[in-house]
Design brief:
By secondary structure, this protein is an alpha+beta fold. It is built from 6 helices and 10 strands. β6 and β7 form a beta hairpin. α1 runs parallel beside α2 and α2 packs across α3. The relative contact order is 0.15.
Length: 265
Amino acid sequence: ASQGAIGIENGQLHERQWGQRAMQRDLELAHKVQQGFLPGAPPKVDGYDFFDYYKAASHVGGDYFDYIMLSGERLGIVLADVSGKGIAAALLTAKLSSEARFCLAIETSLATAVNRLNAAFCAAGWDDRFVTVIIGVLDPHTNELTIVNGGHMAPYLRHRDGTVEPIGEDQSGVPLGVSADFEYEQFTIELAPGDCLTLFTDGFSEAMNAAGELYGLERLRQHLTEPEVGVDKLGPVLLEDVKSFVDGHAQSDDMCLVCFGRQYK
């Protein structure tokens, strides 16, 4: 009986180990699939520089960004944060990726495209799931950037002299999936030489150190004020400061960052 009990216990242990290895393989595959939805490299647009960063809190996450080439050599820039974490949130980012590309491709108005995207998301019936999103369409010929904000934190616009301001707070709408009838509002700014826009998810502002302190929006803003620093240096400096602040404390939320700006002349 004793030998039989040991055999059963060993069998159960082997079964659990096999199940854990299978789950680990599935998570690794899910990670690769999600990475495939993200841009492999920043876009090449004459007169502009780009920097991006993405890191999920676990194997997969609910943050998402994308660059979408549109007619007239315009560029769509999308950054979003799906409610929740893990596999469920990652599946919604996959849906969001395809729907966003479709809506931006067939609509000439950005606001109309986001209205269509929101309607599709609401119609899918994702229960209590929602998405904060900010989408911009850049026209490099006119240097105009048209933006729609769906319940996301306002991006920071840094001017060449180092002054920084949040933009579009008054035009911010509700997150996708909250109201199918909501009408989103777009606004347009013109980027001057040296202007840079920073889009980020709350994994940055809510990054926490071992003492329970949050990195915060003000510290983030302060690190964008260095005058005449290019996008290629701005992003890495910000990442290094966040890393120094948390000082090895475990990442609790997905982190996504997109910086882009007009080159100096």
